[in-house]
Specification:
Layout: E1 4-10, H1 13-22, E2 29-37, E3 41-46, H2 50-60, E4 66-73, E5 76-84, H3 87-98, E6 102-111, E7 125-133, E8 136-142, E9 145-152, H4 158-170, E10 174-177, E11 184-187, H5 202-207, E12 209-212, E13 217-220, H6 221-224, E14 230-231, E15 234-235, E16 250-251, H7 254-257, H8 267-278
Antiparallel strand pairs: 1-9, 2-9, 3-8, 4-8, 5-7, 6-7, 10-11, 12-13, 12-16, 14-15
Length: 279
């Protein structure tokens, strides 16, 4: 089967990702993922009355937009101040924050810029703008998150095949990159038995790789959250939800990695992981 495209739309990014993963057939993997829309915005209109301005602003809200907040503005004047090297730079700044609901009446220089000597003693000027507010309305809205993903057969490179085979042969844990936060976590060489109860310190639980059978992803323990079952400094209950679908996850092992698109860390991942830990 050749690569194909799937789409999903939901209120939140995590919900959209969960929907994408629920569409992936067994044996196929997510090869790439693109967030098409994940932000809202605002619609702004000017009219003779605030009621009319609200009606005009509502017409500008996208059909799939969900209104979060409505604001109205009555006529008035206010003064804005900003540092800049010249009046033209100050005017561009004031125009940017005024939008179409305000107009600049005048700009006055309050402090003259100083060039200094070879950069020493340099000081920006101070400009003040008298701004008139028009009768206007502004509506803030959000739009659903839409994700487009390409799915197909996942062919691991020779490096990953060798590393996975070596860890499985010698029965040792293997590092894998969390598919949510991209930190490095550790997976077991083989799944634990149904009658085995893992006992870990919180630090180990944070780094332990987790597998969600519903989304077929690998995430770190930190992304799934610390278990509710704590006794002193030891985690004794192994019930942590998937960050996307909220289904229970399990400790990940090599067979689980092979069911996902999770990759093994490279040198850049190692560097970023050390920087994150130092921070």
């Amino acid at each position: 089967m050749s690569d194909r495209i799937i789409e999903a739309e939901a209120k939140t990014l995590n919900q959209a990702k969960a929907l994408i993963r629920s569409q992936v057939p067994e044996g196929l993997f997510i090869l790439s993922e693109e967030i098409v829309s994940d932000v809202g915005g605002f619609a702004e209109a000017v009219a003779e009355t605030t009621e009319q301005a609200l009606l005009e602003a509502e017409k500008l809200v996208p059909k799939n937009g969900e209104i979060r907040l409505k604001e109205t503005f009555k006529p008035g004047e206010t003064e804005l101040t900003e540092e800049a090297d010249d009046e033209e730079t100050a005017r561009i700044y004031f125009q940017g924050i005024c939008g179409k609901s305000k107009e600049i009446i005048s700009i006055v220089r309050k402090r003259k810029p100083r060039k200094g000597f070879w950069g020493y003693g340099r000081q920006s000027g101070v400009f003040s703008a008298l701004v008139r507010q028009k009768t206007a309305a502004k509506i803030y809205y959000s739009v659903p998150t839409k994700i487009v993903a390409k799915i197909g057969h996942n062919i691991r490179n020779s490096f990953e095949q060798i590393e996975l085979g070596h860890a499985k042969m010698h029965d040792i844990p293997i590092s894998v990159v969390c598919e949510n936060c991209h930190s490095i976590c550790l997976a077991l060489p083989k799944p634990i038995g149904s009658n085995e109860i893992p006992v870990m310190t919180p630090e180990v639980a944070f780094r332990a790789a987790r597998f969600c059978p519903h989304c077929r992803i690998i995430i770190c323990g930190r992304c799934s959250g610390i278990s509710v079952g704590l006794l002193g400094s030891y985690v004794i209950k192994d019930e942590r939800p998937c960050v996307y679908c909220q289904h229970d996850t399990e400790l990940a092992a090599i067979p689980h990695i092979l069911k996902t698109s999770a990759r093994l860390p490279n040198q850049l991942d190692e560097t970023l992981n050390k920087s994150r830990n130092n921070y």
